[in-house]
Amino acid sequence: MMKFFRRFKDLGVEGAQAKFYDKNTREHRMGEMKEEASEVFKFIKDGDSVLEVASGPGYLSIEIAKSGKYKVTGVDISKDLVTIAAANAKEAGVKVDFIEGNASQLPFKENTFHFIICVLSFKNFKEPVIALKEMHRILKPGGTALIMDLNRNAPKQVMKEFVKSFGMKGISAFIARVMQTNGAYTRKEYEAFISQTEFKEYDIKNSRMGFSIYLKK
After folding, report:
1. Could you give the CA distance from residue 67 to residue 74 in angstroms, rounded to a whole number?
2. Are 179 and 159 in contact (CB under 8 A)?
3. What ranges do the domains of the chain cover?
4. Alpha-carbon distance 5 to 119, whole Å?
5. Do 62 and 88 meet the contact criterion of CB atoms below 8 Å apart?
6. How is domain 2-152+186-216 classified at the CATH fold level?
7. In three state form, how does the secondary structure of the chain look?
8. Please, are residues 6 and 124 in contact by the beta-carbon 8 Å criterion?
9. Which residues contact 112 (CB under 8 A, 6 or more apart)?
């Protein structure tokens, strides 16, 4: 189903779905956000600029910004999630610039960011190759982009545990698992996407959720 709908547009959530996404993330994924922020910290230094593509309710960007050492920006296609993320940052007492934008036409000048991260959203993009090209365009020379997403060929048990981590049970968990698995990419597909971009240095590592893909400009 996800593969069908993303043929027409990048997939985002609005309204009640956005509020549910925020609540669910706050209740079940905050530990995950800390782990992902720790991975980002390995690649950046004080004063660096960081962009989260498809930032959702903003918790990862907020976690990165809590150190006060970096300039953090989040971009999301959902107007409602941008509003929610801004409110979450205000509540946390941190500075993050959350703006509305599309991964296939990122609203930034070239050579802007030292680091880009995109978590569990790349499979939602209508034009994955263009999204990668956009990341390359706005990265500074020597910068890194990190995509963390699912593996379509992951064992069923791994996917069950992944969906369970979102607090889902029963039929809702089953539907979510089928949709997420159906929409995810394989290693070969990622390699094919990357081959069509200017990223020449990359590393695809297996992770708990699927893949962590490191792209160096």
Report:
1. 16
2. no
3. 2-152+186-216
4. 20
5. yes
6. Rossmann fold (3.40.50)
7. CHHHHCCCCCCCCCHHHHHHHHHHHHHHCHHHHHHHHHHHHCCCCCCCEEEEECCCCCHHHHHHHCCCCCEEEEEECCHHHHHHHHHHHHHHCCCCEEEECECCECCCCCCCEEEEEEECCHHHCCCHHHHHHHHHHHEEEEEEEEEEEEECCCCHHHHHHHHHCCCCCHHHHHHHHHHHHHHCECHHHHHHHHHCCCCCEEEEEECCCEEEEEEEC
8. yes
9. 49, 51, 138, 139, 140
- Give residue-wise pLDDT tens across range 28-45: 788 889 999 999 999 999
pLDDT tens-digit readout, 75-125: 999 999 999 999 999 999 999 999 999 999 999 999 999 999 999 899 989
* Identity of the amino acid at 130: I
- Token pair 């159906």: residue: 182
